[in-house]
Amino acid sequence: MIVDFQTWRHVFKLDPAKTIPDGQLERICESGTDAILIGGSDNVTLDNVLDLMSRVRRFTVPVVLEVSAIDSVTPGFDYYFIPTVLNSSDPRWIKGLHHEAIREYGDLMDWEELVPEGYCILNPACKAAELTKADTALSTEDVLAYARMAEHFFRLPIFYLEYSGTYGDPALVREVKNVLKETRLFYGGGVDSAEKAQEMAQLADTLVVGNIIYEDLEAALATVQAVAETGKQSL
Ligand SMILES: CC(C)=CCC/C(C)=C/CC/C(C)=C/CC/C(C)=C/CC/C(C)=C/CC/C(C)=C/CC/C(C)=C/COP(=O)(O)OP(=O)(O)O
Ligand SMILES: O=P(O)(O)OC[C@@H](O)CO
Ligand SMILES: [Mg+2]
């Protein structure tokens, strides 16, 4: 199936390390969201990725693996999103693991399916920040420089402002959006209501909703409608 992530406005992120009953998964997949992103920062295994992918594949929604561990990569996804953490202080998470993976599997890769994402992680308490030793004490100018670096220097298709677990700063999201022209701005973190979804969807190109799926399914589902109602046209 040919799908275009450049038009996605709302995405649900499912964590393969967490359990979700079939009925709830069906409501998420049939919600009208633009895609299901499967990924997490720990306890991601080939078994739990395969299990979740096969369950999501019963529905027509596009499904993406956001790679955080090379041994959990399996065929069958529409895309493979590959994070590079621009504000990590450890080169392994910027390009080291990527180099290892490409050295090992470069001959087998379908490059059209691989989509690099330039992450900027801003919640110091989230697991991804701890894992990647992200420098989260950033000024607005620092973050804007990462965004410009993503677009003009590395020419990344996605710049991902990651506040996983906490709601971010709308003023900063607005400033980042204003400096990006080609690169798509993903926002994720702490969206747990229609109001927050609407606010961030007016600023970012694509809104990612994760943890609330497991805490309050109705609130998670309400974010889909809220984004649809923002009226903002995707770039
Ligand atoms: C079809 C087929 C088999 C093809 C094979 C092709 C292939 C091997 C492709 C892979 C190519 C490649 C270059 C892979 C890179 C490998 C790799 C391990 C890169 C590192 C990625 C990275 C920087 C991970 C860091 C963690 C991170 C940023 C994860 C993103 C997701 C995230 C932040 C989730 C939130 O986590 P969560 O667990 O929900 O945390 P909370 O508690 O905060 O909610
Ligand atoms: O889980 P939440 O806080 O919704 O964040 C979504 C996503 O950006 C996590 O990688
Ligand atoms: Mg999570």
From TrEMBL:
<comment type="pathway">
    <text>Membrane lipid metabolism; glycerophospholipid metabolism.</text>
</comment>
<feature type="binding site">
    <location>
        <position position="190"/>
    </location>
    <ligand>
        <name>sn-glycerol 1-phosphate</name>
    </ligand>
</feature>
<protein>
    <recommendedName>
        <fullName>Heptaprenylglyceryl phosphate synthase</fullName>
        <ecNumber>2.5.1.n9</ecNumber>
    </recommendedName>
</protein>
<dbReference type="InterPro" id="IPR008205">
    <property type="entry name" value="GGGP_HepGP_synthase"/>
</dbReference>
<dbReference type="InterPro" id="IPR039074">
    <property type="entry name" value="GGGP/HepGP_synthase_I"/>
</dbReference>
<feature type="binding site">
    <location>
        <position position="13"/>
    </location>
    <ligand>
        <name>sn-glycerol 1-phosphate</name>
    </ligand>
</feature>
<comment type="function">
    <text>Prenyltransferase that catalyzes in vivo the transfer of the heptaprenyl moiety of heptaprenyl pyrophosphate (HepPP; 35 carbon atoms) to the C3 hydroxyl of sn-glycerol-1-phosphate (G1P), producing heptaprenylglyceryl phosphate (HepGP). This reaction is an ether-bond-formation step in the biosynthesis of archaea-type G1P-based membrane lipids found in Bacillales.</text>
</comment>
<comment type="similarity">
    <text>Belongs to the GGGP/HepGP synthase family. Group I subfamily.</text>
</comment>
<keyword id="KW-0444">Lipid biosynthesis</keyword>
<feature type="binding site">
    <location>
        <position position="41"/>
    </location>
    <ligand>
        <name>Mg(2+)</name>
    </ligand>
</feature>
<keyword id="KW-0460">Magnesium</keyword>
<feature type="binding site">
    <location>
        <position position="15"/>
    </location>
    <ligand>
        <name>Mg(2+)</name>
    </ligand>
</feature>
<keyword id="KW-0479">Metal-binding</keyword>
<feature type="binding site">
    <location>
        <begin position="210"/>
        <end position="211"/>
    </location>
    <ligand>
        <name>sn-glycerol 1-phosphate</name>
    </ligand>
</feature>
<keyword id="KW-0808">Transferase</keyword>
<dbReference type="Pfam" id="PF01884">
    <property type="entry name" value="PcrB"/>
</dbReference>
<keyword id="KW-1208">Phospholipid metabolism</keyword>
<dbReference type="InterPro" id="IPR038597">
    <property type="entry name" value="GGGP/HepGP_synthase_sf"/>
</dbReference>
<comment type="subunit">
    <text>Homodimer.</text>
</comment>
<dbReference type="GO" id="GO:0016740">
    <property type="term" value="F:transferase activity"/>
</dbReference>
<feature type="binding site">
    <location>
        <begin position="160"/>
        <end position="165"/>
    </location>
    <ligand>
        <name>sn-glycerol 1-phosphate</name>
    </ligand>
</feature>
<keyword id="KW-0443">Lipid metabolism</keyword>
<keyword id="KW-0594">Phospholipid biosynthesis</keyword>
